Every structure is written in C-alpha cells, then in structure tokens.
Amino acid sequence: MRMKMDEGDVIKGQAGANMVILLEDWKKRALRYRIYKNALRIVLAICCTALVWLMYYYLDSSIPSVIHVRAGETQSFNLGVPATGEIAAVSETGSSNIPRGAVDIDLSRPVTLKTAGSAAYEMQVKLFGILPFKQVGIEVIEDQELIPVGMPIGIYVKTNGVLVVGTGEFQGEDGTECSPSRYILKSGDYVRQINGITVTKKDEFIEYIKENGSQEVVLRVERGGELLDFSVKPEKDSAGEYKIGAWVRDSAQGVGTMTYIDSQGHFGALGHGITDVDTSTLMIMEDGTLYETDIVDIKKGAMGTPGEMTGMIVYSDDRILGDITSNSSKGIFGVCNERALAMADREALPIGLKQEISLGAAQILCTVDGSAKYYDVEITALHLDHDNINRGIELKVTDPDLLAITGGIVQGMSGSPIIQNGKFIGAVTHVLVQDSTRGYGIFIENMLEH
Asked: Does domain 146-154+252-447 match CATH 2.40.10.120?
C-alpha cells in the first residue's frame, strides 16, 4: 500500500531534521566552550601560581636572612621591598639608635642604623605590613681588613677514612658475576675502620681485604654524619684475589685560587668546597696541604664548553704554602706558612658588606699570565638570600685582555677576589657553561662565616 505524502509533509520533515542538526551543533559548541573555559581557568591558575612563586622568590632573594653591620658605625641599607620590619634587641651593650623594645621600619625606603659595640638584633619582616614573611638576624661585627691574593694554588686533600666512590660487579673465580658490597655500601660512604682497625689509605684497605680471605669483615662506615657497622663477605675474582666490589678513594688534587689572607695568617680559597668528582658530595677531609703551582696551559672557554687552567703541582716540601684545616661549602680554609705570606705582599683592603655592593663596575684579581692582576668585570645582579650561597653575586667579564686570554671565567679561577670601590666584596665561584664571560661569586662575609 502506497502512502501519499504531500509537499507540506516534506517541508515539516526537513524542518524537524534541521532542528535536530542545529541542536546537535549547539551541544558540540557548548561542549567546546566548556572545554576552552576550563582550559583557560587551568592556564590562568598556573600563571597566577607561577607569578606568586616568582614574586616570593624575588622577595626572598632580596631580603637576606642575616644582615651584618659594623660596630659603632652609622650604616644604611635599601632593600626596596613592599614590607615592614619590626626590630627588637636580643642583647645589647653600648650605644645604638635602635630603641629598647620593638621598633617598626619601612623596608621599601632606605634604612639607617647605628648599632651598639656588641649587640644582636632580630627583625620580623611582614609583607605589606601584614603578612609574616621571614625572620632576619642583624649581627654586629668588627671591621676587618683582608689581603686579596689571587694567586694559583695546588690543592691536596686527604680524606678522613676511605671514600666509597661506588659499588659494582666483578667476575668471580667460577666465572659468575659477584658484587658483595651491593645493597650494603653506598656511594659517598666513608669507611673508617675494618674489623676495628682504623683505615686511612686506599692501598691499606685493599690489601687487608686480600689478606683476610673469605672471612666476613665488619666495616665501620660514616654515612650522613652517623657511624654504622656493616658486614661484608669478600669473594675471589678471576685472578684468585679477594674483593668486596667497591671502588674507593683516599685523596683529591686540583688547582684553584687563593682568595685572602687575614691579619693572623689564615687563608681562604675557592669560595666553594672540594667535592668528589664521582659522588658530587663534599669531601670529609682529615688534612690537606697547599702547594705553589705554575699555570702551564689555559684552555679558553667557549659557548657550551667551560675553559680550564692547567697547573703543574710539584709535591715537595719547599713548595708548600700552608695547611688546609677545613673544607666547607663556603671554601677551603687554613693557615699560611712564611712562604705564602711573603708571596702575598699586597695591601689589605676593608671588607664590603652585602648592602654596600652595587650593580656595575668591579674588578677581579687573578693570575693568568704569570702574575696576579686586576681585570674589569660588571656586577649584573645580587641575590642577598639565594638558595645557593655560592651564587650571591652575578658578574660578567668585560676586560678585553682577560677575554683574549681566557674567554672569560675558566676552571681554576675559583676563589679570585672581587673588589669594588676599594672594598673586598667576594670571590669568583662558578662559570656559566652557556656563556663563559658570565659567572657567579660568593659574598666575602659568607666566606668569613665558615
């Protein structure tokens, strides 16, 4: 049976289909709109979070955790941040322009202080005068002068115990792979004793393992400042010698630059600690020695490739410059002998505190052509409370003579003094791999806190 559909019915059917299509299209558009809207909200939230984090980082790096001021002197500092500080004396002797009890100051403007001869203060910083942000110590120090040195030094450091560089496998007597120390020793461990016997040298440690045979040994290990005892059973290798599958080291050598000598004959150098090349951990040293060294070659720095100064170190008594007594994150420190004191014949300079440093022209003192000379640099940024204490000063080499010889900052220049306006303000510590003309330095006051 055929049905007859007139023209009106056709038009009505087409209109219904068009309505369905329009409805589906509207739903798709609404879905896309919601997706775009939600994506925009996510992007906006990420941007706001990033902005807040950048603002926090900027403010945190602009406000030091400790402000050093000279005893009895009127000094000014300008943090230029939207915050207030509430200063209170923790202890006080002598005269000061800081009233007893708390006093509020505006940190968005220059602040002038005159501190007592021996005192300690604390400042509670509040953002916008409302939000508690951080606690800042104000420490009074005596004025100090240091001799800037800038001469290359050979460094030899003996570890306190035997440093475990890593563990691994060796082929056993029966051809199987052996690794007795795996999951027992860790990279960065210091083996202090073996079966109660003090260990000081790598060769002694290896020889003891060989002679002990298959008997289990008890290792006293320093790990993270804690002494622990571990038992390890040596196994024979393919040559018939007993091993525990650990690579060890008992010393480190290198070339750097001496930063300063103080009035008591103590020195500071490098501006950063000596770390093990394999474990990247700060080496725990037993003792160390400084040697006079001669620079025999300089590899210029280039984009992506840091340069390097190569020094010849002769380990003889007549070339010793002093003893290293401390290896810290802020440098190496110790006592000079008469030979070093005679070589450092420059005039002592007053130290420059963080708040006295300004962006712009400065100089570094280093030895790249046989004698210590001053070369021009530009201080491009300051991080008063940076996470990495060795990177408080950003600088750029501008001296054409130094650029011609080294291409900028090279390995071996760590510790080169930084001078500005006749004051000793810091030491070079790092070079940017991407741009050898740029690098970082540590504030001299941080080095002196070691």
From this structure: yes
